[in-house]
Amino acid sequence: MDVTDATAVTAAAADTAAAPVSAPGRVADPDEGISHEELALAARNHGLPLEALRYDVTPPGLHYILVHYDIPAVDADTWTLRIHGRVRTPLTLDLAALRALPPVTHRVTMECAGNGRARLDPRPVSQPWLVEAVGTADWTGVPLRTLLAEAGVEPDAVEAVFTGADHGVERGVEQDYGRSLTVADATAADPEVLVAYEMNGAPLPPQHGYPLRLIVPGWYGMAHVKWLTDIELTDTPFTGFQQAVAYRFRQSPDDPGEPVTRIAPRALMIPPGFPDFMSRTRVVRPGPVRLEGRAWSGRAPVTQVEVSADDGVSWRTAELAAPEGGPWAWRHWHAPWTATPGRHVLTVRATDAEGTAQPLTQPWNRGGFANNEVQRIPVVCQ
Questions:
Q1: Side-chain half-sphere exposure of 1, counting CA atoms within 13 A
Q2: The pTM is what?
Q3: Is the pLDDT confidence value at 12 over 90?
Q4: Calpha distance 118→249 (Å, rounded)
Q5: Is the dihedral of CA 324, 325, 326, 329 positive or negative?
Q6: pLDDT digit string, tens, across residues 211-267
Q7: Domain 3-259 coded CATH 3.90.420.10
Q8: Which residues in 15-30 are b (16+ Cβ under 10 Å) and which e?
Q9: Could you tell me if 151 and 112 are in contact, meaning their C-beta atoms sit under 8 angstroms apart?
């Protein structure tokens, strides 16, 4: 679908029969529990089991998933990627043509922009993530800048608009999922954006965008358009729903907000010991306990990880492993802890090279985006 067509669909959607089935965005009422609709979203979309932080590269079935609409039916034999708009040579490339180009692999940590949303008060009503919406994979494909160089971007182009095959209704707007990047971001050498066709050395799984998806290192997951079918270079900024409405930091419904872009620093801990089934409270034995996990940031390299065993009253510096997977992958950290009988709250926080540290309490926004408040793990030592 052309951007002009998509815009027409967006503008007309509120007047269609689709609008009544799709409610406006809202925040939960005081003491309102998780709704049936939120539970249905949570059943469709899943996070990383935190014990899987032990893997340098996340197995595809454990990597977090957020599918806005449906996983589309795909015929790989007829799938094409169209590159058009403000280019000198429009291109239509099938999968064989893309695979014939020199491949590149990047290890990238991807995190959902709404990670942590369910912990906010009042809670934005949407996919109710806690802290598990993350994963790291080796993505293989063709650099987007290679494809755009072949097409020849015109000097007046300002954005590249990416459209996926997933189609649905959101807040009354019928749409194909679409996002954009500035031409500068789309053609940058670092971070290098990929049109990816493999995940961890195998074809993309259906839920991860088979047969093609965008990989934008350092950016939250909404930028990594799945089931990619169309790239249009435009001479005006894209105003589609996912760009201009959905992923923005707002304090009120009429606040135009600022766009959500790069991943804020975060560290997560592998929960130690063993869990209670319902509460997930951890149980450990007295004595030495190795605390470990992963830390990452899409803004600047992580330079420090600290841990606390008293809910942030005091902190100790953890040992941060050297970056092994490249600049856009998480880093392993570990620290010793001597567990003593009683109840404890383990906490971990990351700081990046820009001096940005995770907050102990999260500033609120209406969409629940970029919530990187520190992780807290209740532990009972007995």
A1: 19
A2: 0.93
A3: no
A4: 16
A5: negative
A6: 999 999 999 999 999 999 999 999 999 999 999 999 999 999 999 999 999 999 999
A7: yes
A8: eeebeeeeeeeebbee
A9: no
CA nearest to 231, candidates 128, 132, 143, 328: 143
Q: Where are the domains of the chain?
A: 3-259, 266-381
Q: pLDDT tens digits for 312-360?
A: 999 999 999 998 899 999 999 999 999 999 999 999 999 999 999 999 9
Answer for the pair 376, 131: CB distance below 8 angstroms, yes or no: no
pLDDT of residue 11: 39
- CATH top-level class for 266-381? mainly beta
Segment 26-33 mean pLDDT: 92
Tell me the C-alpha distance between 58 and 364, whole Å.
30
Q: Please count the other Cβ atoms lying within 10 Å of the Cβ belonging to residue 343.
A: 10
Full DSSP string of 204-248: PPGGGTTT-EEE-TTB-GGGS-BSEEEEEEESS----HIIIIISE
Read off the DSSP letter of residue 257. Answer: -
Give the helix, strand, coil percentages of the chain, each rounded to 5. Answer: 15, 35, 50
- Nearest 10 degrees: Cα torsion 133, 138, 139, 143: 120
CA 16 and chain centroid, separation: 31
- If you search the block for the tokens 């001096």, which residue do you land on? 355
CA 55 – CA 332 distance, rounded (Å):
10
